[in-house]
Amino acid sequence: MSGLRARLALNAALALLVGALAFAAYRHLHPAASAPPPPMLHLTAAQVTHIEIDRPGRPAIVLQYTPGGWRLTHPFAARADADNVGRVLDILAARPSQRLKSTHRARFGLNRPMLTLTLNQVTLRFGTLNPLTGEQYVGVGATIDLISPSYLAGALKRAVDFTAKNLLSATDVPVGFDFPRWRAARRQGQWFASPPSLAVDENELNGFADRWRRASALLAQPAEPGRRAEESFTVRLADGRSIPMAVLARTPELVVLRRDEGIEYFMPRTAAARLLDPPTAPLPGRS
Q1: Are 155 and 89 in contact (CB under 8 A)?
Q2: What are the angstrom distances between the C-alpha of 25 and each of 9, 18, 19?
Q3: Peptide bond into 39 cis (omega under 30)
Q4: Residue 279 — left, alpha, or beta (φ > 0 → left; ψ -120 to 50 → alpha)?
Q5: What is the pLDDT of residues 188-227, one digit of tens each?
Q6: Are 139 and 127 in contact (CB under 8 A)?
Q7: Helix, strand, coil content of the chain in percent (nearest 5)
Q8: Model-level pTM?
Q9: How far apart are CA 266 and CA 255, in angstroms?
Q10: What is the Cα–Cα distance from 10 to 50, expressed in whole angstroms?
Q11: What are the helix (H) ranges across 30-146?
């Protein structure tokens, strides 16, 4: 009788063990819903007004938010490309899969980070990758977070990549163009062109001004010192300002210098006809 009781007890214990293992396997395959991990940074994009990117052996890139939008202030001054600035700020959405508290920062490559990113007064140091998960160690204050390495991509850019490619800012409204061989001006809401021999109607001049407002370059960079201009012209704006510009080359590509900013813009040579020449040819028989 005692042997029967022992077997029953053993069977009950085995049943409990099998049940526990089955429950553990189920929880592994169907994990219980849990709250998402907290964000790495408690900042919003609207709160960030200063960005600094430091990489070993390269000049620091400094971006500053102004009432007129983001500007690059170092290593040279220029209007900044808002889209590329936004890609840097994507890291504000990062949620670490793991948070460590460790004094052994050299173990994670944080004593010599591959990149240091400062957002306002918060500094992030990007270290090595975890060999098992492929995630990146990022030091923030006294903690070390593991996040996706994709968040680093936005900051791995050159200074010229942060330079705005549009020739005019969003608030620059052209109301006049003074080229060496022709002019256009908007007066009392209407466009006029000179000399009178140009067969240009108001719709064509409206389209010309719109092309200038949308004009964007493939590359924008600080002007090369001492480069001679082929011709100079002026774009007059609705707020009373005048922007002095110059054509540095028409071939093999169009290069336009915005003198007030010291930035040269590289565009396909076909852009010259759309941005520099009158919309139509002179009327036959006129000079």
Answers
A1: no
A2: 24, 11, 10
A3: no
A4: alpha
A5: 989 999 998 888 888 999 999 999 999 999 999 999 988 8
A6: yes
A7: 25, 35, 40
A8: 0.80
A9: 5
A10: 69
A11: 82-89
